[in-house]
Design a protein that fits this description.
Layout lengths: L4 E6 L4 E6 L15 E8 L3 E5 L2 E6 L10 E4 L28 E4 L10 E4 L7
Antiparallel strand pairs: 1-2, 1-3, 3-5, 4-6, 7-8
Length: 126
């Protein structure tokens, strides 16, 4: 996450500070007042969610270190899986590789040609 920022908000002292996230995922928030609790949140268009969604940090007179927030990005890809059964197939027989058994995936906007094709091996699962 390189385009995100971390926001620290204190309800009691009505103060908000924010900082950017470095390329290696680290961050440093400056200007937090000691003896206050801040809700730390991640703000970014690149992530689906963070765990925890907000983290309460009790700021003392020294730096708080090793604050870890897991960010979960939404993948631009979709994983498709399934199993194949053939009409009239005897389920007790061993499935043999059939070079004509192909799974094809189409875009709903273009059903003329598949965007991906997979030949089934000896497994009926893909």
């Amino acid at each position: 996450m390189t385009k995100g920022r971390i926001v620290a908000k204190c309800e009691k002292c009505d103060r908000t500070e924010e900082t950017k996230v470095e390329e290696d995922g680290t961050f440093r928030i400056r200007g937090l007042l000691p003896n206050n609790k801040y809700a730390i949140t991640v703000v970014s268009n690149e992530i689906e969610r963070s765990v925890p969604t907000n983290l309460i940090v009790d700021v003392k007179s020294q730096d708080s270190k090793d604050i870890k927030i897991l960010v979960i990005s939404q993948s631009p890809y979709i994983e498709v899986s399934g199993s194949i059964s053939f009409e009239g197939e005897d389920r007790n027989l061993v499935f043999k590789e059939d070079p004509k058994a192909i799974v094809e995936i189409y875009d709903s906007e273009n059903v003329e040609s598949p965007i991906q094709s997979y030949q089934l091996g000896v497994s009926r699962y893909f």
